[in-house]
Amino acid sequence: MSREAGLAIPLAAVARHGRAVLVVGLTAGIVSPSLAGAIRPHIGTLIAILLAIAAFRIGARAAWGALAAMASTLLLVALLQIAVPLGVLAVERGFGLTGPLALALLIMTTTAPIAGAPNLTILVGGDPAPALRIVVISTALLPVTVVPVFLASGDLGDPAAVAPAALRLAGLIGAAAAVGFLARARLSPDLSPARTAVIDGLSTLVFAVVVIGVMEAIALEIRRDPGLVAVTTVAAFAANFVLQIIGAALTARAGATRAAAAIGIASGNRNFILLMTALPDTIIEPIMLFVGCYQLPMYLTPLLLGGFYRRIGGAGR
């Protein structure tokens, strides 16, 4: 048996059991804060690797699609990062909702989807190409889309402060995607199902390591105040999953069932870090527990919403 074949078998098995592998990573991060802390400084590098793997799997042609796909992605980004947060702000003000949870929900809906959205889409059996398009375009446009939300809120500071962090991440995403596309074109223009399974297994392993690293904050907090962690976790699950379900359901109803999983995941799983680097500590400190708890629904999406996405998008996994 060749070395490639020897690696292919276990990696394909990891791909088949991807949801369980993520749960193992999540559990390991909560149980061992020291392990999570050791991995956390390397999360940026790991995310770049994940994006390169996703780009390799998808290929440049499928990722960017036709001009019509790009136009619809721009419209979607405007809806997700301008219309949705402005709607949230209107509801919160209409009902007089204030406090850390209201602030966290506004920040969550204002920012771009997480860079791992294509990998989560793969794990629920969906088409990752729309997710990759959304991640690249939404992150690049974040300095523009935050302006109306920041101005309408009046409490989030200067929207120009977001630009450096957004541009840095957009550059990282673009570079990682370019590496993946180039490697695909040079090494394997046509992926067989067997090789696709190997790539999915590798992606799942890297994703599981990322999950361990992002669990450090909640692993420490759960030891100090488990009751508060439980309440905040319920709120994080509700916010994340409601947005995912609405986004996917509306997409499927509009007839774009192949993109339903990608859009649902992008709707609910947002990159807090992008805005946290630009907002003052007086805003960030009260929402840090929510940010930590928010990682749970994010990385449990394939396990808890996998069946929903298979039904709504017709994806078989």
Estimated radius of gyration: 19 Å
- Our estimate of the beta-strand percent is under 5%
CATH architectural label: Up-down Bundle
Which class best fits the helix and strand makeup?
A: mainly alpha
Please tally the helical runs, counting DSSP H or I stretches of 4 or more residues: 17
Poorly predicted parts: none
| The CATH C-level class name | Mainly Alpha
The secondary-structure element order is HHHHHHHHHHHHHHHHH
Distance between the termini: 28 Å
The profile of the biggest β sheet is: none
Assembly form of the protein: single chain
Helix content: over 70%
What is the average per-residue confidence, as pLDDT, rounded to a whole number?
88
What overall geometry do the principal axes of the alpha carbons give?
globular
Strand element count:
0
Description:
With 317 residues, this protein is mainly α. It is globular and about 55 Å long. 81% of the residues lie in helices and 0% in strands. The chain has a single domain (42-192, 223-308), classed as Na+/H+ antiporter like fold. Helix 9 (128-153) packs parallel to helix 14 (260-268) and helix 13 crosses helix 16 (281-304). The chain contains 17 helices and no strands.
Task: List the keywords.
17 helices; Na+/H+ antiporter like fold; 317 residues; mainly alpha
Q: Topology of this protein?
A:
Elements: H1 3-16, H2 18-31, H3 33-39, H4 43-58, H5 60-64, H6 67-94, H7 100-110, H8 117-123, H9 128-153, H10 163-187, H11 193-214, H12 216-224, H13 226-253, H14 260-268, H15 272-276, H16 281-304, H17 306-313
